[in-house]
């Protein structure tokens, strides 16, 4: 059998990559300080971005208590970073690898901003079209899993006649979604995760999407129906103008980013060396079940596979795997670079095209990083701020998961979630707000971690209560539109 042609597909793949990391954001200005954590300021603008993108914000409370809860969460993220430093976690090889990775991603975002942001101009007509778009209502249902392989398995089963109702019982522990086939009902596009909504809008009514990756994991989406708002109010349009401008800028930024990459990489023209690439693929898939050059299950380029490739390609390690104008990347250099990437960001692939895609994305970023370094962008304070923000989030969820795993569910709590109709019985009101026992456990883990951090760092926090009250007055709690409606995956 003739191996598939991949020679000139790499550049095309590079140029078609959906650049989630390229979303255009404005540099946070110096501004009012809403809190100090060990003399490190939390700016109001940073806090605003934090609570606006929290899917749980305003679900259980509103007003000043809701804002204070959000600020406590953000402060806890700062404190977990201090706890990690105290425990030596930030000096471990895995954390150092993660920091280097996030530094590269922040550099790329800064490069895109430097090259693209100034070119973006937003007109009123574009704002109005975006207003019409986000007020479109869609009726969707979905299946969710954090595992890519499971998502593709369900997708194949759906194509072979399985029903959403049958698979939803496997996908969800949440009784509502498990029993209604993952049906989310009618939602405005603005209420959905952006990636999820974009995929749903590309479907014809009744069509099913391949797995779509969002911040939570992988979704298979079916668009049941779609309807557009007939009446659009001028007052509502003006109230949403700031949000609309942000969405339009992001959309135009993606298009300009693609053009920038096409212009920059087009002259360099990176290409895989066909014979070496094919040997690389064969070594990756040696002994595994596959049909028509497609693996039955996705393969992760983990340390075990990299060590295997070092052995099986020992005579070709210094052969060029990728060539471009002015340079090349050998097999050895590629494998070494992959080992320096956190395991969660390594390539997963089932086909030669997917492996070529992963290589294309990697060489694209490496060449763009060289451009960022030539322009000394790594010296910008925003790069450091973005990296620290992401690392704080990662460490917070590490410690939160540690607390979660230590929680034992009392028998009386378990009986509440096991009851077929708990609403007919007398239960504490604070239990009825949770839909699953996992959701209750996450809440308990947050409380435990919060109390622990405040015991360990009792004098490190100062909150600007007056500024928090002012911020509360700027929010229309009666008409606040949540950015996400998904329940926490169980």
The average pLDDT is 82
Largest sheet: 4 strands, antiparallel
Number of strands: 14
Total separate domains? 3
Widest β-sheet, arrangement of strands: 4-3-6-5
- Count of alpha and pi helical runs: 20
Under CATH, the topology of the largest domain can be stated as Triger factor/SurA peptide-binding fold
The portion of residues forming beta strands comes to 5-15%
The value of Rg in angstroms is: 25 Å
Shape: globular
Contiguous runs where pLDDT drops below 50 for at least 5 residues: 1-29, 482-490
Helicity, as a percent range:
40-55%
**What is the straight-line distance between the termini?**
44 Å
- Top CATH class of the largest domain: Mainly Alpha
Structural class determined from secondary elements: alpha+beta
* CATH-scheme architecture of the largest domain: Orthogonal Bundle
């Amino acid at each position: 059998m003739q191996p598939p042609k991949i020679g000139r597909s790499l550049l095309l793949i590079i140029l078609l990559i959906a650049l989630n990391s390229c979303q255009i954001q404005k540099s946070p200005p110096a501004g009012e300080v809403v809190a100090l954590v060990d003399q490190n300021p939390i700016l109001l603008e940073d806090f605003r971005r934090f609570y606006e993108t929290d899917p749980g914000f305003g679900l259980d409370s509103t007003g000043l208590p809701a804002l204070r809860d959000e600020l406590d969460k953000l402060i806890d993220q700062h404190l977990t970073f201090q706890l990690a430093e105290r425990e030596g976690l930030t000096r471990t090889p895995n954390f150092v690898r993660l920091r280097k990775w996030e530094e590269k991603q922040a550099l790329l975002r800064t490069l895109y901003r430097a090259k693209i942001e100034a070119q973006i101009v937003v007109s009123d007509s574009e704002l109005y079209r975006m207003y019409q778009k986000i007020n479109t209502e869609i009726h969707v249902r979905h299946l969710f899993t954090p595992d890519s392989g499971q998502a593709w398995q369900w997708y194949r089963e759906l194509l072979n006649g399985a029903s959403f109702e049958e698979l939803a019982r496997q996908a969800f522990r949440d009784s509502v979604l498990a029993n209604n086939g993952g049906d989310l009902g009618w939602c405005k596009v603005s209420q959905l995760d952006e990636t999820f909504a974009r995929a749903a809008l590309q479907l014809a009514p009744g069509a099913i999407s391949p797995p779509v990756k969002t911040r939570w994991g992988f979704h298979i989406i079916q668009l049941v129906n779609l309807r557009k708002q007939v009446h659009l109010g001028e007052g509502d349009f003006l109230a949403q103008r700031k949000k609309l401008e942000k969405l339009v800028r992001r959309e135009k930024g993606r298009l300009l980013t693609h053009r920038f990459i096409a212009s920059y990489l087009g002259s360099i023209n990176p290409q895989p060396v066909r014979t070496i690439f094919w040997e690389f693929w064969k070594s990756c898939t040696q002994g595994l079940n596959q049909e028509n050059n497609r693996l039955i299950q996705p393969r992760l380029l983990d340390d075990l596979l990299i060590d295997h490739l070092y052995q099986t390609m020992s005579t070709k390690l210094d052969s060029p795997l990728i060539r471009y104008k002015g340079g090349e990347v050998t097999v050895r250099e590629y494998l070494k670079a992959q080992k320096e990437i956190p395991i969660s960001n390594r390539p997963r692939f089932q086909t030669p095209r997917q492996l070529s895609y992963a290589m294309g994305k990697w060489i694209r970023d490496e060449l763009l990083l060289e451009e960022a370094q030539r322009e000394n962008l790594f010296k910008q304070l925003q790069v450091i701020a973005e990296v620290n923000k992401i690392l704080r989030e990662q460490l917070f969820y590490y410690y939160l998961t540690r607390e979660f795993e230590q929680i034992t569910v009392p028998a009386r709590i378990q009986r509440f979630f096991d009851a077929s109709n708990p609403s007919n019985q007398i239960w504490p009101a604070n239990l009825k707000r949770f839909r699953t026992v996992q959701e209750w456990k996450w809440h308990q883990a947050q409380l435990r971690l919060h109390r622990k951090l405040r015991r360990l760092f009792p004098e490190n926090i100062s909150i600007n209560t007056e500024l928090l009250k002012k911020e509360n007055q700027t929010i229309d709690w009666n008409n606040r539109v949540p950015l996400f409606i998904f329940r926490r995956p169980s």
